Amino acid sequence: MDFNVLIIVSMLVAFVLTLLFGVVYIDFLKKKMYTQYILEDAPENHAKKAGTPTTGGVFIVLPIIAASLAALTMNQSLTPAALIVLMTFLFFMLAGLSDDLGKIIHKQNKAGLTPRNKLFLQMVISVLPALYMTISGQTSLNIGQYSLDLNYVYPFFIIIYITGFSNAVNLTDGLDGLAASNTTIAMIACTIICVITGHTDLAIITAAAVGATVAFLYFNRYPAKVFMGDTGSLALGGLIASIAVTGKFELWILLIGIVFCLETLSVIIQVASFKLTGKRVFKMSPIHHHFELCNWSENKIVTVFSLVTLISGAIAVILFKILW
Q1: Using CA atoms in the order 147, 152, 155, 157, what is the torsion angle rounded to 10 degrees?
Q2: DSSP state of 49
Q3: Inter-axis angle of helices 178-197 and 298-323, to 10 degrees?
């Protein structure tokens, strides 16, 4: 089957599966009362979000994996790299799910995995793609014709890189539709780059992710009927990063995922400033909460942030194509 057709098939299958699975899964969550518990220090208007079903990431991840495996098998391109990416994706989902279930069971937002345990799990999962790339001898960072071989430092860099990006998407998941919309745009950029570089296996996976996240937005747009939870955000962050690693465009993700990077940077700046000077730079971090407290509506924040990702993603794709 034509490769371009398979990309469309992968995207559409993931889209349909997510919509169908979402209806059933949300009904299950409501019956079992698996709902979100809001942080006490979150903006006041977030109190109304309490009771919204969570762990919606389950019906993002599983359709992506199913659609990807089907399309990859049809194309006879179920490569080791594709399997590593999908396994990493699944493990990140399970890590996030264990965190969400802890919060649900104990009925408290901070009752999931401890930050240390969550970080440890993320780093352990990140070892999988890091070792695969190191063993296969792909230990360089590339920008066009420029290359820097990190050798034995590479796996440690990648573990930090994937863990960091997984957390970055997790931090961004604080408003209805924010993480899902920005992930969709970032995945479109990743799909185009994978097509340019000839990584057909990875392009099929990213196309499935586009289809699934677009479908998820039907349930997650304001006012959200379900939250993806750490189940979805940790997994999607891990997926974007592992795709960039196996597709050898690691550094380009800093531009493609600029919103995720800025969200993380805002937290680092806020914490550092408060510890060093006792003063806060932002009204609240991550930075989307700062804009909330500046009286921006959730829809406005999501629209502006998505537009930033769209522009930065387009620039990244154009520059990548020129340098490629």
Answers
A1: -60
A2: G
A3: 10
Decide: residue 25, CB within 10 A, 0-12 exposed, 13-18 middle, 19+ buried: buried
Q: What is the mean pLDDT of residues 46-68?
A: 89
Contact criterion met (CB below 8 Å) for 192 and 263: no
Structure tokens given for 254: 């800093």
Residue 3 has pLDDT above 80, yes or no: no
Answer yes or no: are the C-beta atoms of 243 and 190 closer than 8 Å. yes
Q: Please say if the pLDDT value at position 35 is more than 70.
A: no
| Token pair of 33 as six digits | 């009362």
Distances, alpha carbon 243 to alpha carbons 99, 128, 180, 235, 236, in Å: 24, 13, 17, 12, 10
The count of residues in the chain is 324
Read off the tokens for 275: 């510890």
pLDDT tens across 279-313, in order? 999 999 999 999 999 999 999 999 999 999 999 99
